[in-house]
Amino acid sequence: MTKTNKASASTGNIPTLLVVEDEILIRFQICAYLRECGFRVIETVNADEAIRILKEPALRVDLVLSNAGLPGSMDGHALAQWIGQEKPALPVILAATPEHTADVAATVCEAGPMVAKPYEQQILLDRIRRTLADGG
User: I need a labelling partner for 120 at 20 to 30 A (CA). Which of 20, 68, 87, 99 fits?
Assistant: First the structure.
């Protein structure tokens, strides 16, 4: 886990986002932007780390934003499937380059909504707010 505040992430009405992004510069930029927008943000670099966070009962996560093309034991699609089985009420937004999205079009509907990378900040913010308002 790269950054988190367990005490503050588990209290209050501010939505907590779990961002799973292996590219440090992208993660830094998008997490800083989301914090400026008023969200609590927990950063992770891969699916294994994200699952450890999601299994912690003291943490409340309201939405997961994950890179679809994560390296490691599972990619973002597999993470979204795990979340769908273990935490079905938790919404997931996957982010992918257009090329990656085309390669995995069959799994997009199962994994959840997708946004394009590189991130267009306002589009991402609108998608997050809409997803949270819809309850997932």
Answer: 87
Give me the average pLDDT of each 10-residue run along the chain (136 residues). 41 88 93 96 97 96 94 92 95 76 47 64 89 82
In angstroms, the CA 36 to CA 64 distance is 18
Amino acid letter, residue 59: L
- H-assigned helices in 6-96: 6-9, 24-36, 47-55, 76-86
Amino acid at 92: V
For each of the domains in the chain, give its residue range(s) and CATH number, in order of start: 6-133 (3.40.50.2300)
- How far from 97 is each of 42, 51, 90, 118, CA to CA, in Å? 23, 23, 23, 7
What is the Cα gyration radius of the chain? 13
Q: How far is CA 81 from CA 6, 77, 87, 88, in A?
A: 25, 6, 10, 9
Beta bridge partners of 44: 20
Helix pair 24-36, 121-133: axis angle to 10 deg: 60
Nearest one of 132, 20, 12, 11 to 3, comparing CA atoms: 20
